[in-house]
Amino acid sequence: MRKENHQEAENNKDSQANDLIQKLQKQGILDDAALKVIYENPEAAKVITQIAVQHKQESYDSPFPHPDHLERFNELYPDAAETVFKEFERQGKDRRDMESIIVDRGTKFDLNAQKYGFFTSIILVIAALFGMYMGWDVLSYGILGFGVAPIVSSYFGKFSKKEK
């Protein structure tokens, strides 16, 4: 069993070597003299196969696959490139929709915070006026100083920053 597997592996290597030699011949890298040496010495084919192993590294920075990869995708799966671009467009639309939802919610939150701040300051002013009416002057000034003043100053502070 082991002998058969070993022989299959050797045959596979030989066929890879022959395929590589044919490719090199088509590209014009091997001339007739080199082919004669290779065919006379079977070990030369194995050496050429080992030498001809090439490492190729590419760098491509894009949200899309490399154009060469898209071509290969199309060979395996027709209209694969179109599918990739449609998916990219769909994801972009979904992302823009989510961003608009986030902005809308942030705007609503800010508007609600302004409303609550306004109503809180009105309630505090009414409480201070009630305290003055009842004769609780110190309490009323405390409410106005510590409760209303920060809200009013932050409100007017926004206007002064916008004018600059």
Description:
- The protein has helices at 2-26, 32-40, 42-52, 67-76, 80-134, 137-163.
- It starts with a helix and ends with a helix.
- The longest helix has 55 residues, at 80-134.
- The chain has a domain at 1-57.
- 84% of the residues lie in helices and 0% in strands.
- By secondary structure, the protein is mainly alpha-helical.
- It is built from 6 helices and no strands.
- Helix 1 (2-26) packs across helix 3 (42-52), helix 2 crosses helix 3 and helix 5 (80-134) runs antiparallel to helix 6.
- It is rod-shaped.
Mean pLDDT score: 78
The low-confidence parts are none
- Morphology call: rod-shaped
The Cα radius of gyration reads: 40 Å
Specify the biggest β-sheet. Answer: none
Strand content: under 5%
Number of strands: 0
Helix-strand pattern: HHHHHH
Q: What distance lies between the first and last C-alpha atoms, to the nearest angstrom?
A: 88 Å
- Name the structural class: mainly alpha
Share of helix, binned: over 70%
Number of helices: 6
Features:
164 residues, mainly alpha
Concise account of the structure shown:
84% of the residues lie in helices and 0% in strands. By secondary structure, the protein is an all-alpha fold.
Helix/strand layout:
Layout: H1 2-26, H2 32-40, H3 42-52, H4 67-76, H5 80-134, H6 137-163
